[in-house]
Amino acid sequence: MRVAKVLGGALRRHTAIELTLVDQFDYHQIITELHAVAAASMPPEAAAIPFSELLAGKPVTFIQTKVTGFNFQEQTVATESGKLSYDILVIALGSETDFFGIEGLREHSLTLKSLPDALRLKEHVNNMFALAKNEPNAEARRRLLTFVVGGGGFTGTELAGELADRLRDLGRETGIPTQESLVAVVEAGPTLLSGFDPGLVRKARIILEGKGVELHLGDRVVRAEPGTLELKGGQVIHNRTLVWTGGVKANELVQHSGLRTGVRGRVVVNPYLQTVDFANVYAVGDVALVLNQATGQPLAPSAQLALQEANIVARNIQAGLSGSERVQFQPRIAAEVVSVGRKDALAKVGPFGFDGRPAHWLKRMALLRYLYTVGGPPLVGNWLMRHGLGGD
Predict the structure, then answer these.
(1) Which of 213, 326, 337, 339 is placed for a possible disulfide with 347 were both Cys, Cβ 3.0 to 4.6 Å?
(2) pTM for this prediction
(3) Can you give the residue ranges of every domain in the chain?
(4) CATH, domain range 2-95+249-333
């Protein structure tokens, strides 16, 4: 979407150039806010921006359909609505949940990769409290009110904090004592938020435990069955809700496309973000295996890097059309912010780490900045008029 918008503005007067954006939904999802939608902290419409609004005035044709395959030799994209031909292709199909082959995990867990996923989880949590309210058996009620988050990365940590706050609200609404409900996080690594500032990781643990979240660190899931989750250490967690956020891999279509792939099925690209197999095919976002030029190690996929990559791809496509020199992608990590509930957040800006109200507001400002990058002042203004900033 970002590539289409930038090119649409830059190539507005080139009437011979056709720009087409394809997506299975008719709206752009703000993936970083799905945990808030799932926990009823944000209305769903605040995390979904219609493409008609984003592309207004841009010479971009939007087609709502699902991509089903690629033929790079013929330069076509197969969709549920038929084939589309291209001269230049940008693949930005994102990632999907990685279940790592764990027995029963795919069949017995919920995920959080899309707005429909978030709404499904929200409704499920509400249903568990409705059932628990009328359940006389204490053991059955305990299972109904145990919510397990698999994975303690950014998504899992943010979801756990939001869910803990949501359970308190639902407890008040249903008359169920707070101590009867539980959020548990299972993380195979030794800490939450792997790779984040160690001091802030310790703070995240303190905040979550203060909300009553039960942490199982350094222990991994080995089997999921209806109502039970078995850990490698031998513990069995009885529950009726498991949300798996423990890992992602590149979209399966791309993994089986014939393009050269690497870690987690991500497409190997050169420093200009072209696939190494076809110079007229670019990959951006979670689907692209982008290396840190200094270390040679893969960069962790993130929203801010995806936007930076999109800007470089748009610039390089323009350069290819005009015959000018392409530029290499150089990542810039301006800041990292993670929420740990509705009013709690942690932030790392350069060498400085902090938490509390400043981090909470920085998280909100990051959302507004993102809205500005994709839609400019009109989108920010409209969004604030509809939804405000919320909270204190």
Answers:
(1) 337
(2) 0.94
(3) 2-95+249-333, 115-246
(4) 3.50.50.100
Are 24 and 63 spatial neighbours (Cβ–Cβ below 8 Å)? Answer: no
Round to whole Å and give the CA distance between 186 and 100.
15
Residue 301 near residue 248, CB atoms below 8 Å: yes
Whole-number Å distance between alpha carbons of 78 and 150: 34
pLDDT tens per residue across span 256-310: 999 999 999 999 999 999 999 999 999 999 999 998 877 888 988 888 899 999 9
Residue 89: closest CA among 7, 189, 197: 7
Please report, as a single letter, which amino acid is at residue 140.
A
| Sheet of strand 241-244: strand arrangement | 214-217, 182-187, 146-150, 241-244
Please check the confidence at residue 121 and state whether its pLDDT lies above 80.
yes
The whole-angstrom separation of Cα 54 and Cα 32 is 18
Cβ–Cβ under 8 Å, residues 20 and 14:
no
In angstroms, what CA-CA distances link 277 with 261, 270, 274? 10, 10, 8
Q: What is the pLDDT of residues 329-375, one digit of tens each?
A: 999 887 899 999 999 999 999 889 999 889 999 999 999 988 988 88
CATH architecture of 115-246: 3-Layer(bba) Sandwich (3.50)
- Asked whether the predicted pLDDT for residue 386 surpasses 50, the reply is yes
Q: Do domains 2-95+249-333 and 115-246 have the same CATH topology?
A: yes
Helix%, strand%, coil% for the chain, nearest 5: 40, 25, 35
Long-range contact set of residues 270-275: C-beta below 8 Å, sequence gap at least 24:
271/328, 271/329, 272/312, 272/316, 272/326, 272/327, 272/328, 272/329, 273/309, 273/312, 273/313, 273/316, 273/329, 274/316, 275/91
Under the phi-then-psi rule, with left for phi > 0, alpha for psi from -120 to 50, and beta for the rest, what region is 364? alpha
Q: What is the 8-class DSSP label of residue 392? A: -
Closest CA to 283 of 329, 246, 319, 320: 329
Q: In what order do the strands lie in the sheet with 76-79?
A: 67-71, 76-79, 82-85
The pLDDT assigned to 392 comes to 47
Provide the 3-class DSSP secondary structure of residue 80. coil
Residue linked to tokens 């290396």: 291
